[in-house]
Amino acid sequence: MGLQARQIQSQKLAPRMIQSMEILQLHALALQERIEQEMNENPLLEQQDVDPLAPDEEVEAPDADTRSESEKELVVDGESDNSEDFERLQNMVSELPNAFDEPFKRSANRMQDEADRRHDLMANAQSRPESLNDFLLHQLQEMDIDDRVEQLAERIISTLDARDGGYLRMPLVDLLPAGHTDDDVELAEQALAIVQSLEPAGIAARSLSECLLRQLKSNFPHYDEMTTLVTSHLKDLAENRLPQIAKQTGFSIELIQDVRAELHVLNPKPGAAFMETYVPNVTPDIILEQDDEGEYQVRLDDDRVPQLFISEYYRKRLQDPSATAEEREFIKQKIGSAQWLIESIEQRRSTLTKVSQAIVEHQKKFLDEGPEAIEPLKMQQIADKVGVHVTTVSRAVDDKWIQTPRGILPLKRFFVGGTQTDDGDDVAWDTIRLKLQELIDKEDKSEPFSDEKLVDELKKAGMAVARRTVTKYRKRMGIPSSRQRRDWSLKK
Fold first, then answer.
1. For residue range 249-285, what is the model confidence (pLDDT) as tens digits?
2. Distant-in-sequence, close-in-space partners of 89: CB < 8 Å, separation ≥ 6
3. Domain endpoint, select from 414, 447, 476
4. Cα–Cα nearest to 386, from 416, 420, 347, 418
5. Are 333 and 442 contained in the same domain?
């Protein structure tokens, strides 16, 4: 062990610089919350309250002579002893104990008003949707069954997850206590049968085949054929191997296709209907408008962000000779923090406006003509145009939305990769995907395009793309393979 002295040069971000980058990354609603937090921590920060319904009107403060003694403003300065103010405070304090000793009596009208407000809150409160487990338990409670079977059924229901479609993924024996007997297993089977008899049909199935079989009804036109396919040929149906099914079952291709169409009315995930869907409330940070000449202009929608300023009282207090050294140091520190926050918000406004305007100017064809006209764009291009670092662009567009004539879109939507055509022109991947979808929609379903054939067709359109790229985007778009897209009923 020993001591060594080394000189190291490194870059570290100052806390205020980190704060400035954090402010830039916040969207409008998060920025409001951050400002409220800063105002709670910094007494020197004040905001300008503006009535949005009457922005040009000024609210006059009540005249000082018309206010009571207890309502007059308390002003503490170093030029007077403020004896009247302190006397007024002393009188208020002396009155408080008696006021709190007496029980608070509310009038009948006030009690009725509070009751009405509580009723309105309860009536307007969003109710929690019924869960899958609650729905099944309510049905179970209406059944007259043995207590032990009911307990096992409740245990089975507790394992079902709506996100998984309501399948029973756990073996029944795992729900039984250690040292269970054959009678316990039989009771568990009875409990499972009861749960599977509940609505929705197919719930608590242990496989896709069992789930579909529980939904089959004898009044289906091809009930027997449907049972055969679900029991033994689900994988062949998924892979569109209809000739192989026809060879093994003796069914015609036309009959198999009719049966498959009937199977599509069944629900492979019956519990998914109870999933809680979360729809985020998107508030655009930027508004895109067109001027008289048809040019796009961005406007930052920050009307909800309060205008901040530093309290005039503390500014004067800093210059007051009666202020102590500790008080001066506290005020200086808080003034610096407040000033940096105000400048960070202004910097955010400027950077976000410049970045958004540069993005809109680059993607003007996309806004005019639609998604097929989007052009390749990288963040480095916008950074070079605006004159900032690429990480600044990344933070500026993160979680930001822009209101355009084509709807509210995330700013990141305008950044897409691409490739070059044979003519050397840049083409975005979104354009290639749209062309790929167009080719598949127009193909001959008796002989659908393979991925190699799709590469050739795209090349004819001037888009040089590798086969693995076509395969990757086809899968991302949810397009099945050529064998699965083939319609066997069409003549070759």
1. 999 988 999 999 899 999 999 999 888 766 667 788 9
2. 74
3. 414
4. 347
5. no
